[in-house]
Amino acid sequence: MLETLPHKLRAYGLDSDVRTLLIMYKGMQKGLVRTLGDLYGLLKGLVVKDPRMLGPFTKAFYDYFLNIDIANGETLNDAILRSKTFEEWRVALFERDKTAMDLTDNELIDLFLNEVHLTSYDIKALIDGRALWDADNPELEDENPQETSAERRVLDKMADYSDLSLEELLNRMNEVMDRQKGEHSGGSHWIGTGGISPYGHGGAAQGGIRVGGTGGGGMARKVIGSSHFFPVDMDRIINDDNVDAVLASLRGVIEESAHEKLDVESTINKGLKRGGLFIPEIKNISEQKLRVLLLIDNGGYSMTPYIKTIRELFKKMKTRFSHDLETYYFHNTIYDRVFEDSRRSKPVFLDKILSKDPEYRVFIIGDASMAPYELNKMSLRTYKKLTKKFKRLVWLNPEPQRYWRHTYTLNVIRQVLEMFPLTPRGIEQAVRKMNTFR
Amino acid sequence: MARTEYWEGSEKYLCDKGLAQAFHMARVLGMPLLIEGEPGTGKTELPIQYAADNDAELFVFATGSKSNVEQFVARFDHVKYLRDSQIEILNAQRSEKGLDKKLSTGGRHSENLQDYVVKGPGAQAYSSPHSVLLIDEIDKAPREFPNDLLFALSHRKFIMPESGEEISVDEKNMPAIVITSNREQELPTAFKGRCIYHYIHFPEPDMMRQIITKHHPRMDNKVVSVAIDIFYHLRSIGLERAPTTREILNWLSYVKQYSNEEAIAKIVKLEGVGALIKTQSDMELIQKKILTDPDDFSRRSNYN
């Protein structure tokens, strides 16, 4: 059941595996999931491990559970408006509530979002029946399902699933899923009959609870955090907008290491004072050093658009984390020298670079695209020497990854060293890679 | 699991709804709650206030750059052990010589290895049911700490060093575990995977007003409005270190001693702004702003 969910989440770049499902089932068993909004909240806690991933997660969730596919750069409103799910929901809404026809599109979307993101916590707040909720403690869920106070019925109508066994719930979800997958599903989805929607049980909205009204609208928008909703696209080539996201990824290079070491001197000194009782003294060694070498290809017009941003990025990094940063330039590929200035007039020979501390992190930034003859033996030997000396060396390439395989020289270089795209995600991966060498 | 009632803050503490829900989920599932967010957004407050409000015992492990799991779980005090065993020999020698007075080991017995186990907050929390365990600022720890911790936490069982004593807790009595991080370094993916994650966004102005009211209940509305307005303006001009909740609260504590008009005048003149601005370059930036557009801040006093 729902076994395709991790796959979908992964397709959106989120970390998810079978454990996500297992914990989700556990949460259902414990009564955490009664509405689609609950499911959103639970999955969010399980899958979103970084504020930047909230956007992709929301996209994946809407795609998987609501069949609403938010295209890149599209606003949530537009995506909802053009979706079939919303259309069907609107038809159903108008059927049961004629006054809703007067609402504007935006109000309708607010209402829709509120329904989607209605959680049992909200229901609780709405009914304002504390005792009821406490009696409805998830741990007690099986003891007294027949209990029927007036308020309780309201909760039932709001699609309380605590009476359903886990299996039934999953079955139901699966059914909905299946029907959703059908091409022309014709009115069967989460927000319709039989879905997990709070309004699913035959128009419970007439029971007198109107979420949009009490929540003041936009309640759901708060949940998905409208201002944080469209995050930096993690796969976009670095530009001025996402430079901060990159910076956050780069922060990982600064690695504070702490380890313990036997302090021989102090062990002897103290042991002598103790009259020959030697107890090993441990000393903590913590160091925070970060030295970065930046080798930038600034020849050729293909690199021009990125140079400024890259320099900006590393400058920011320098001011933010104070460390040694040395920048050198080259044209297309490195032979026996790089240059201190961007006009490439002051050469620095490779031997000098190679004589640096191997602890340096080295970023080579370039598109690695050149005429095949330019990438000669000498140049390749240079890269080999560099990778041998600096264990933490990566190549960042601004060229979109999907074109990489078409460039011959790029692939040759890739055989010698690790290459990552110059995107927030790529840099994050690069940094992670760098940190695995210890 | 820990206590599973939904808790949404107390009189003194305004808990963001999303955070309250995540915390509830974590307790129900018996998983640690990992809270990340900018400094000064009240991450640490959650477990402290929760424990206070529910009369639960609170155990805090403040992580530092030298933290290791032994400190968190328990360590064996070798020095005491060695001393006590030597004292026993000494005592034996003394009694041979007919001396009555014995040296004390403080009630410890070197046969009882438990006597020398010093329990850390982790082991203490596991031995007291329904407690609250806070692991603060885990991002300060060395890289291997989170992963070591993960192993300890996911087995709900600690084995004490040397004595082999086992401290375990069943799911029912599990402490509520809250871990906070300022994102100074990325935590390992595997670690994050075992936690319920919540990121605290910086509060919106409405929320900020509510937080201020909780802390300064008698403060005049207009003073608060002006302060909030300037505060968010300062946050938006791209300072190196944007002021946080804690800092606006401190700032308001400073102006509280004055009458309302005076307080507003002080706020728009950015008096006591040292409470908000923490770096030299930010200070320079603000002074430059005041020079180029002197009305930028003062016109905000017309706020109603």
Q: Element order, helices and strands of chain B?
A: HEHEHEHEHEHEEEHEHHHHHH
Class from helix and strand fractions of chain A: alpha/beta
**Superfamily (CATH H level) name of the largest domain in chain B:** P-loop containing nucleotide triphosphate hydrolases
Order of helices and strands of chain A: HHHHHHHHHHHHHHEHEEHEEEHEHEHEH
Uncertain stretches of 5 or more adjacent residues of chain B: none
Output the strand order for the largest sheet of chain B. 2-5-8-1-9
**Count of folded domains of chain B:** 3
Number of strands of chain B: 9
Helical residues, percent of chain A: 40-55%
Proportion of beta-strand residues of chain A: 5-15%
Largest sheet of chain B: 5 strands, parallel
Radius of gyration of chain A: 29 Å
CATH fold group of the largest domain in chain B: Rossmann fold
Oligomer: heterodimer
- The level 1 CATH classification of the largest domain in chain B is Alpha Beta
Number of domains of chain A: 3
Which features characterize this protein?
heterodimer, A: 438 residues, alpha/beta, Rossmann fold, 3 domains, five-stranded parallel beta sheet, two-stranded antiparallel ribbon, 20 helices, 10% strand, B: 304 residues, two-stranded antiparallel sheet, 13 helices, elongated
How would you characterize this protein structure?
The complex is a heterodimer of chains A (438) and B (304). With 438 residues, chain A is α/β, with parallel strands linked by helices. Chain A is built from 20 helices and 9 strands. Chain A has a 5-stranded parallel beta sheet with strand order 4-3-7-8-9, covered by helices on one side. Chain A has a two-stranded antiparallel ribbon with strand order 1-2. Chain B has 304 residues and is α/β, with parallel strands linked by helices. Chain B has 3 domains: 17-73 and 124-200, P-loop containing nucleotide triphosphate hydrolases (Rossmann fold, 3-Layer(aba) Sandwich), CATH 3.40.50.300; 76-113, no CATH class; 205-302. The radius of gyration of chain B is 26 Å and the shape is elongated. The chains are: A alpha/beta (438), B alpha/beta (304).
